[in-house]
Amino acid sequence: MNGMGEQIFSGVRVLDLTWHISGPYCTKVFADYGADVIKVERPGEGDPARRMGPFWQDDPHPEKSLLFSNLNLNKRGITLNLKNEAGRELLLELAHKADILVESFRPGVMERLGLGYETLKAVNPRLVVTAVSNFGQTGPYRDYELSELVLNGFHSMINCGEPDRYPLKKGGYACLHQGGLVAALATLAAYWCATEQGLGQYLDVSLMETQAGDVDRKTVDMVCWTYSGRIVYDYRPGADTWRANHIMPSGIFPCADGFLASFPILTHWPRFAALMKDAHPELEKLRFPEDMFDLDTKGEMDIIWYEWLAGKTKREAMEACQAVKWFGTAVNTPADAVEDPQFLGRGFWVQAEHPVTGRQTYPGAPVQVGEGSWQVRRPAPLLGEHNAEVYGRELGRSEPQIQALIENGVI
Hints:
formyl-coa transferase, domain 3, 2 domains, elongated
């Protein structure tokens, strides 16, 4: 692991009452840059993400979820039963010492537990409380369930996929991670205000709304609809707006050993002609922009493009594209990404020694801010790993008292 020098958020304490993906990703941002993030989990069960794959060696064990390990890197972990009166008192003690509290329960749960914002503010007026929920704390959908698929369906799926086929969602948990990142940004802004003004804030983060303002097609589509009543790219059967508006190849295309992503802009025709000049020098004779918009010749252009790609590996195709400043890049598999020379050259991948799964590789700093900013200080915590440390050394409970808390189902 890296050294333990000063970091951006060193000295900041975050209480993490989140689970699944968005909330833990929000608090991970603080943990990775030095904050003391205390992850609070339900005794005996823990975060449901512990039961989400992929698992180390395909063993569905609560300490072997690689998703959980990545989301909770650099955090300490305790267990606490918030439905127990003694548990609520311990949480308030922790909140008194904290700078930030992030929770991702259903709307109204914190109030029913006696831990609503007014109660928390009474014990710590400077506390920033961030509530991450599916649809927000108010509104007709506030109690609805949400998954990554549902979240995609509310926004971007109408323009994702292939023409005349059903819409597709983005891969993995992209939207849930992005929602957590938006929550982290908002929390950081509120924390800055708290340090300047001495007053905390309550942040209501709706995952649905974090995606509505995303620039990945959704904002463009919504603005276009409000002005014109049209959908920019409609992939529904029978719709005609999906059709390409120029002959240059745009999308994902097969190579000899994988795929190349190609996304040109309208002024890049000379670059495409330069890319194809050896195989098809006649392209340089085509007129810009008239011939570029002649969609009757697109089929012929596709043949030229596919033939050119078929004789190249994805790395060879990418290097040829980049040599003429064409937007073409190899589509990496996970194995490719881990060995990618750009990632390796910048030291992006980091390692941590986990007591159950051993030494594992994780994504590193998304932003490099100088020496000692992003560090691996500890692996994701085992369930309740830091109970004695937090309740004993930091809250002053004796070993017999901690044992009593365990026996009474409080921790």
